[in-house]
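FW: tagging you since you asked about this chain on Friday. Here's the raw sequence from the shared folder, copied in full. Didn't touch anything.
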Amino acid sequence: MESKIKNRRDFLKEMGVYASSTAFLASIPWLDAFAQENGKNVAASDRVRIAVIGVGSRGRALLMNLQQVENVEIVAVCDNYEPHYSRAIELTDGKAKAFYDHKKMIDAVKDIDAVVVATPLHEHAHIVVDCLNADIHVFCEKAMARTLVDTKLMADTAIAKGKILQIGQQRLFNPVYLNALERVRAGEIGQITQVRAYWHRNADWRRPVPSPELERKINWRMYNEYSGGLMTELAAHQVQVANWYIDKVPTQVMGSGSICFWKDGREVYDHVALVYDYPDGSKCTYDSMIANKHHGLEEQIMGNLGTIEPEINRIYSENPPQAPGIRQLVHDIESSIFDVIPIGGATWIPETAVQYRGDVIAPYENNDSFLQFVGFAKAVKNNKPYPNLLREGYHATIAVLLGLQAMDTNEIVAWPAEYVMEKDV
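HL: got it, structure written out here
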């Protein structure tokens, strides 16, 4: 255990050096979370006291990451599904107070600083608003909500109450993505004209159901009332990256969705394809499916001088260095060594993908789910939201919900002006 703690501390120190030296810290204010690492010997009264609401698969992972953040104490857990309720008690060694109802938890535990909300999507809005109105800071798993109205309500409430509402877009805290963004801002890949993003899996997404009446409770991701399917579960991560790197809000979206393969009674699409347009003419093309995993996932950020693929930690130049053999051939031709140039074949060669492995963006191994909680805990401790961090999660959710609307109606959907959150300056 000590070696893990040491490695984690060493990593946070490295992040601190990066945060304090980066030239674009002003545009990524949440990097300040790493400017100085939390101390390890802090009085119990100075710890950040957090409750976790929703301890299913994602909630469990978030809880376990929270347990690794120094100066955080998990004081309560809440879940209305008995197996998850019992698991939450076990994960906290019975030290956290356990509840089935979040309102009872708020009433009973008076000194909660913040909550983590990881319930099914359709439950986010009313729980988050209840907590904000109780003057409790909130971390909410992405996407924010099932509807545009609820998403705006959550954001408006947080702003009106002056409370932190941080959305689980962990790539915003990922050192590879941050380093790549710095290189984009420095002009290394030129002007971004397109982000091509995709997320491919091969699984039905279903979970075992112990009895039929629990089908919708357990497999809520399959039903439109509770979930936006691939868009709210996966695309919300990647469209956020596109918005962040292009540094603009889309103007419109078009798309097509279908239940193409898993014809098992689900209501949400198992295959989607969309195009988001941005004010400067750039685009984000997005597709996701769950019947083929060959290509996995990636966000390909493409400029006229290069391409970044942050998921695999690679950056590529449009003018890569020539291989030694090619350089020798060019030299021999220029030096008239050959009587006949040894090149032959067809006059047209298919323009297949460039076989160039690129360079590593940043030499980091990290857990961005953990890093986002380091940032959240510091914001809670300082009782102050990071400028523009909510804006990133908000626009990601609005984008995927408008994408769903475009697919459902088979129409081009414009981004309504009332759903644009202006930047803090």
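FW: The domain at 187-320+352-363+392-419 is CATH 3.30.360.10 (Dihydrodipicolinate Reductase; domain 2).
HL: agreed, and The chain has two domains: 2-172+368-386, 187-320+352-363+392-419.
FW: great, closing this out.
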